[in-house]
Amino acid sequence: MMPQAFPERLATTSELAPLLRPAIEREVSEARLDANWRAIQATIGGLATVGAIAGASSLGAKSAAAVKAATAVKLGVAMAVGVGASVAVYQVVEPRLHHAPAPVAAPAVPVASPAAEPPAPTVVEQPAAPRTRREPTSKERASAVAAQLQLYRAALDDTHAGRHDEALKKLAQLERRWPHGALEAETVMTRAEILFLAGRDKEAAKYVETHLDSPIVASRKAELWLMLGEIRTRQGACTDAASAYQRALGLGLGDKDAETARRGLRRCAP
Amino acid sequence: MRVAVAERREPAGLDVGALYRAHAPFVARCVERLVGAGPHVDDVLQEVFVVAFKNRDRFDPSRASVTTWLYGISANLCRRHRRGSFRFGRLQERVAAEPVSGTPMPAPDEALEREQSVALVYEAMQKLPFKQREVFALYELEGLDGAAIADMVGVPVGTVWTRLHHARQAFEKSVRRRIAAEGQP
User: Fold this and answer.
1) CA B133, CA B67: separation in Å to the nearest integer?
2) What is the ipTM of this complex?
């Protein structure tokens, strides 16, 4: 059969219409679009900040040198690198004052005396090192990520070995040492899973519910709803579980997770 | 059939917020159809608008509509996209294996059936080569006509019909095989 222009659409055929219609009518929910918009705003806000800093340095270039120059005019820049994210997010932090004010009376450069004898050396009070936050070098960032991964892997090993409390302690340590580290979202997800695996359903449900609107896990919301569905199922609250599974499916799950959610819905069926 | 593409030309100096409000549903649908459903759709959707923001000065309304431009960015990102997350352990699988208790409730049959249909369609679409998949998605699911698709994809209309022809054959074959193996979706 030869290719045909303007073929009849499959959705108008009696055989495939029932199959295709749900895919045609499927829309991404408003809530999901809003969450994505917040994430986009955070990213482009950061990009705009970097641009502004580069502009303030009068070099007009978005280079590391420009950022460092901007730091010298009392702007602190903290850089957070997310593994898996392709765009670095920059966050402006409060400018901090130097330890001690710069000396007023003593000139920074001694003025040459018209007299023949050399001028007495002028003691210049050195200002204390600025307490602005330094941008980490790429080596430091890589090393920090490696350390986070190591701790995270150790927590996973503990979980697989059934040492849930140890695993939770390691995750707490991870959160304490790197509050906004590369594995921040992963830590939240894993903590919820471990609480559930440890049979601490009430705690797990509360933890998941408090993080449902958290921007940290905005892109993992569907997985959180799925987890809540599993928790509610085990608690015997099938109505809540079915609702959670449906929310998860509505937000979009990967193939395996979607199958889990569908299985969950089936289990709640009579 | 929904026609999502507004062919109006928009002024230069794009406001990404307005762009998002107007086009995010269309972009999200396209991304989901091209890479399959899942949380990765959010990642790609966000990246599309970040890329649009970065390149907003390069957008030339005399050359393409905003929709075509956004679709081009989406298709490039989807083509590059490889599924797979950063997770080390799939604890979720163990979670799913936990025993079930509790009072049964009436099944939300309709929602389940719809989800199964969508999953079957996406699964069959994922087996198509990317060039066929995008034409199939835009014609069969988005309801666009050949000329609009040719404009968005950047190929002659004849090529659109050829790709669609092969895509439909492969799609129908794949779906029929699945239905025969499992019964009606």
Assistant:
1) 18
2) 0.79
